[in-house]
């Protein structure tokens, strides 16, 4: 009996193990059946049936160049100071400062004398086209193309701006001090020559001496105006030249450019690039899908995603351009014509709000493509498609926050801000659309990647 009981127990254990193996095999077969099921049925099972968008958002665009931020006063200050800022001495100081800040840049330049001549030529040319914005924009973009050939990178702009502003401070202070000294001497000589004139002339000389006593205050304001005017112009340079470098730059150099205190590239550029990366991952998922019965849908989705990626890359460049316009408007002289400056800031902030709004438009559009693609994507690309979708969701939400930063700016409120209401309203609509499509995508992802236990 004991022997029979032991045999029975052993047999029961074997049967239990066999039952477990059979259950596991059935589960695996069911999983495979779901993955290999006809795509039309799978789409229904995972919450699909979504159609591809019929149309895309408007092509990325901006209105006006960074140079439009410059007021008439700023242009006058720049033009009047070109003989000093564009001098041989100033060019020499600039390159000395530049190589002290970034010694590695010395290898990019030829002979110092030749570089100094080029710099003086550029500044002289700029002073002649400041009132002709199309010519200024075209010339600065051509300059950017040439610098790309020299292996210039986005991170170099920070050193260039720092060196240039240091040079402006040095040479303008020297020139103003010299002019003030000459003025004091001339005034003294005039007093000596006119000592015997009548009382009216004496009163006039007294006014002249009072003007001389006011010179230090005027000198300080002049230094401030010149410095701010040239800083504004540098942002115009960066806004026109840097976008073409963006897609040619290395990842390391781009990160270095982000990490410095220059205004561009910054958050708006990053969120547009994140959206472009999301679209690229969705293209990968489409390419990994081999189902012939869905080939037409996959091909259409791929074309739409490629268009979205290109548009988001363009918006990343445009964001750099418009934010440099904002900085040019803010940094320029403010005291003499404050209304003109505030209007320039308001117009620049409007463009700065429209770019992230367009990013959000493209994020919503691309996510709708993803919503139609995810249910039919091959299993090998589901993870990549999910990652791309979440990148786009993050880009869209961050873009809307960026819109509201610009429309809610105190600087915008000081100028004319009638443009902000329509932009805010559209941003709220896009946020609702993002919420809707996010729920659909999460449901599809959960069905495609069931979590056991």
TrEMBL record:
Keywords: Membrane, Transmembrane, Transmembrane helix. Residues 69-181 form the Globin domain. Signal peptide: none annotated. GO terms for molecular function: catalytic activity; heme binding; oxygen binding. Pfam families: FTCD_C (PF04961). The keyword Hydrolase does not apply. InterPro entries: Cyclodeamin/CycHdrlase, Formintransfe-cycloase-like_sf, Globin, Globin-like_sf, Globin/Proto. Residues 185-204 have a biased composition (Acidic residues). The chain crosses the membrane at residues 6-28. The keyword Protease does not apply. PROSITE patterns: GLOBIN. Residues 181-214 are annotated as: Disordered. This is Globin domain-containing protein. The lineage of its organism: Eukaryota, Haptista, Haptophyta, Pavlovophyceae, Pavlovales.
């Amino acid at each position: 009996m004991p022997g029979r009981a032991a045999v029975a127990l052993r047999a029961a254990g074997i049967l239990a193990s066999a039952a477990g193996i059979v259950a596991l095999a059935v589960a695996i077969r069911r999983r495979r059946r779901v993955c290999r099921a006809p795509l039309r049925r799978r789409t229904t099972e995972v919450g699909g049936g979504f159609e591809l968008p019929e149309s895309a958002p408007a092509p990325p665009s901006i209105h006006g160049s960074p140079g439009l931020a410059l007021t008439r006063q700023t242009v006058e200050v720049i033009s009047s100071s070109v003989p000093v800022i564009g001098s041989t001495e100033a060019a020499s100081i600039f390159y000395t400062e530049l190589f002290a800040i970034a010694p590695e840049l010395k290898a990019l330049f030829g002979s110092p004398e030749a570089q100094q001549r080029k710099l003086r030529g550029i500044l002289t040319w700029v002073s002649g086209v400041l009132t002709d914005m199309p010519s200024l924009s075209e010339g600065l973009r051509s300059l950017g193309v040439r610098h790309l050939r020299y292996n210039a990178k986005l991170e170099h702009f920070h050193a260039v701006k720092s060196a240039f502003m240091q040079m402006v401070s040095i040479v303008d202070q020297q020139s103003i001090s010299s002019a003030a000294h000459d003025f004091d001497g001339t005034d003294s000589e005039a007093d000596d020559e006119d000592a015997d004139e009548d009382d009216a002339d004496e009163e006039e000389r007294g006014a002249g001496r009072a003007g001389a006593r006011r010179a230090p205050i005027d000198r300080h304001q002049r230094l401030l105006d010149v410095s701010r005017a040239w800083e504004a112009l540098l942002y115009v340079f960066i806004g026109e030249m840097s976008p073409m470098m963006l897609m040619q730059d290395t990842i390391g150099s781009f990160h270095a450019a982000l990490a410095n205190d220059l205004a561009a590239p910054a958050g708006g550029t990053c969120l547009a690039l994140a959206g472009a990366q999301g679209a690229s991952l969705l293209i990968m998922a489409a390419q990994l899908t081999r189902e012939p019965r869905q080939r037409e849908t996959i091909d259409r989705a791929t074309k739409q995603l490629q268009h979205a990626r290109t548009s988001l890359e363009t918006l990343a460049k445009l964001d750099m351009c418009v934010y440099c316009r904002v900085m040019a408007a803010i940094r320029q002289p403010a005291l003499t014509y404050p209304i003109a400056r505030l209007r320039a800031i308001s117009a620049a902030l409007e463009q700065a709000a429209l770019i992230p709004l367009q990013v959000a438009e493209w994020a919503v559009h691309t996510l709708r493509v993803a919503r139609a693609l995810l249910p039919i994507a091959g299993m090998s690309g589901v993870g990549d498609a999910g990652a791309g979708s979440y990148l786009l969701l993050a880009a869209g939400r961050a873009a809307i926050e960026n819109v509201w930063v610009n429309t809610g700016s105190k600087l915008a409120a000081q100028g004319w801000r009638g443009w902000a209401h329509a932009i805010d309203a559209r941003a709220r609509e896009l946020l609702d659309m993002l919420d809707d499509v996010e729920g659909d995508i999460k449901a599809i992802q959960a069905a495609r990647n069931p979590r056991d236990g």
